[in-house]
## 1
Amino acid sequence: MKIGFIGAGNMARAIATGLVNSGLAPQNISCISGDDPTAANLAKDLGANLAANREELISFGDIVLLAFKPNHLETITPEEGDFAEGKVVLSILAGRTLADLAKAFPKAANIVRVMPNTPAAIGAGVATYCFQNEPSDELKANVEKILGALGTAYQVVEEQLHIATVINGCGPAFYFRIVQLLGEIAEKHGLDKNLAMTLASETAIGSCQLFNQSDKSAQELIDAVTSPNGVTHALLQSLDRNGFPNVLEVSAQDAVDRSVELSEG
Ligand SMILES: NC(=O)c1ccc[n+]([C@@H]2O[C@H](COP(=O)([O-])OP(=O)(O)OC[C@H]3O[C@@H](n4cnc5c(N)ncnc54)[C@H](OP(=O)(O)O)[C@@H]3O)[C@@H](O)[C@H]2O)c1
């Protein structure tokens, strides 16, 4: 697999570094960026190639990976787009649809649209992705290898990317907000705020790991920590009484609506 990165910032660095660490020779990677030296730095750090221009970059490999800001897609010229003839274009650009990408790269053999998330920076990301056309087994394996550099990845169909975006793309901000709010609440109750946030985040990590490793359902795990009329029971009853499930449903719908709106330009 040879892969060329357009954009060499945080996400490209995480993917390229993960690929090299998993055995891809750095000579099989090329990159280019904007006016700042992110691509030069990435190429130097990994021993990868630095492309002189986008035509050279797009011609370099079998896969062209787009890792610049979403609004820069329109800077791809028709001539540059044509250089991707027969290649696979993989995009991590938030909100840019397969149709947008196909407009920029009309001759690509296949296009992969990915929604990664920020824990990718520490290899703990979870990505969702979809293909323009049914992929070959080899392409699927290569995409899984590339996204494996960021954590885990799951295939969906494009329409599902709106709700997937809310869950895995916006998810980190949701969990950071929970940790922040619990810290503020604990402070009001006289507990050190930083300690409370650490307790909240470590409890979230432990609970989710338990959920992932257990064969029990979420409800069974809830039941296992809830005694009748106990403290957890009081917390859960209050959350339901005060509309927590409804708040989540309405907020998720608002975010899905915004995702649809953005994808329609
Ligand atoms: N960070 C996340 O967790 C996350 C989550 C979901 C989606 N994404 C998507 O991932 C993409 C990259 O995010 P990031 O956090 O890695 O961004 P970033 O660190 O800001 O990197 C952006 C890169 O794009 C380059 N660039 C700027 N103008 C360019 C141009 N005209 N042509 C080509 N390259 C250009 C920059 O180069 P110079 O600075 O060297 O000029 C830099 O290498 C975004 O589209 C974002 O929507 C990121």
## 2
Amino acid sequence: MKSTPLSHLLPATRSQAQLDDDARIQCLLRDRWIDYPRATQALEQLERLFVTPRRERMPCLLLHGDSNIGKTQITAKFRRRHPDVFDERRGMEMRPIISMQMPPTPDQHRFYSSLLFELGAPHNAAAGLAVLERLARNLLRRMAPNMLIVDEVHHLLAGTYREQRASLNLLKFLANDLRATMVLVGTRDAVIALQTDSQMVSRFTPFEVPRWRESEGFRRLLAAFERILPLRRPSDLAQREIAQYVLAASGGLTGEVSRILNAAAEAGIRSGDECIKLEHLEHVAPTHIQ
Ligand SMILES: Nc1ncnc2c1ncn2[C@@H]1O[C@H](COP(=O)(O)OP(=O)(O)OP(=O)(O)O)[C@@H](O)[C@H]1O
Ligand SMILES: [Mg+2]
């Protein structure tokens, strides 16, 4: 193979860029993490909460933003920083962070079932709510996590008014009972759901991950993508025309930016161009703007 300098890529991506086309297209499907300022701020905020000494009424966070903006990726990144450890002395696994999803309908029984599943606790699915609740609380007390993350909190709004109240009370009860910090994650609907309860509002600091706008930050994000896409020639994604196109086609959603760039990178590999051109973007993500 003709050797190219590949200086537009991160060192770790350079070896990938030497692989054959199919292998490189496979590489595009891998999970990857790109730092950007708002995510770094969110991670710092999570870290501050994580190290807050235990006390009554722990401060809590409501991480919100549109679907596909990257909220779950942020919490996943944070979890990787604080992995589970086996405590030899106690002979049990310590879980600094417990993370779960709100069930698609606000059903307390399902909530505790999911939580117990997450805690690795076998339980009788037919058990009553009070039993599951007690089991979950006892386990949480023993495991003493520093943080409980509940994702997809906007599902709470899917229920009737009564169910919403009950689910909110459940979250409030857990937040009070745990003596750990709680992080709720969801779309704008999660914010609306919490706003109906003044105690929750005072307890949970909102933190928004907004959509991208035309900015130096967005161009830096594109430049960061360019360094990890296994293409053999530079694309200069941060240039004005390309940045504007990707912004319009993605609606400013990180997930869409990632998907569009993957598809365009695949087109760049298959066509032999070995870089992303505007025509690839127009092909994989047509927009109606001129
Ligand atoms: N920091 C990042 N680096 C690289 N890709 C990212 C990053 N954040 C998000 N993405 C991309 O965006 C996609 C959507 O992210 P994520 O699942 O975190 O969104 P979300 O905000 O949780 O959406 P939803 O509200 O629908 O659950 C990811 O699958 C990934 O492709
Ligand atoms: Mg998510």
## 3
Amino acid sequence: MSKNFDYCVNLPEKIEILFKQGEYLGEGHNGVVFLLPDNMIIKFFRNKKVWKDESSILLKTKRSRFFPKIYYLGENYIVREYVEGIRLDKYLKKNELSEKLCKELYEMVEDFKKLKFTRQDLRCKDIFVQLDGSIKIIDPKNNYKKVVKYPRHLMKGLYKKECLEVFLNYVCEQDFKKYTYWKYKIESYLKYQVK
Ligand SMILES: Nc1ncnc2c1ncn2[C@@H]1O[C@H](COP(=O)(O)OP(=O)(O)O)[C@@H](O)[C@H]1O
Ligand SMILES: [Mg+2]
């Protein structure tokens, strides 16, 4: 992957110095990501709207332990905290969904409520499981735009890895009303595609 793509222009000197020491980390539909020194990453966005959405989410989630800290906002890029660990979907191929992990996922969704997200959902591939068993979200999207009242994608991902039941049992122990609602919603979705 070449570093010389057109959206990496006019970087301020301090960012340019860091970027020169950076290495390619990965990319998705919306951006290209490089690892910088001091546990930071830089994500360049292809689309200004996505940059705006992601920046505003990360500014609003500053106090949540589930989101990477934001260090610097550029015109079409964000410098933020590097998240170590393994993607949840890959992690679950080799590991069980432990009680600790259920607790992390449950508390994360509870945090979504506190952050007043209208979309209280995300995909397993955007969650990283860290060495100490805690989780962090790398790529938040549309959390104040779409309306999703239960963690549909998350539970669908857990279902594919055959651990939805373990998660729902944990939810049942915490909050029976929530368990009944989530179970009803995800079963309707999986059986009849009712969102
Ligand atoms: N904060 C981060 N820490 C570690 N790796 C990251 C981080 N952000 C992104 N990445 C890596 O870069 C890839 C692309 O980033 P992502 O934010 O998912 O882009 P997109 O919005 O285009 O999907 C991710 O799949 C991941 O491998
Ligand atoms: Mg992504």
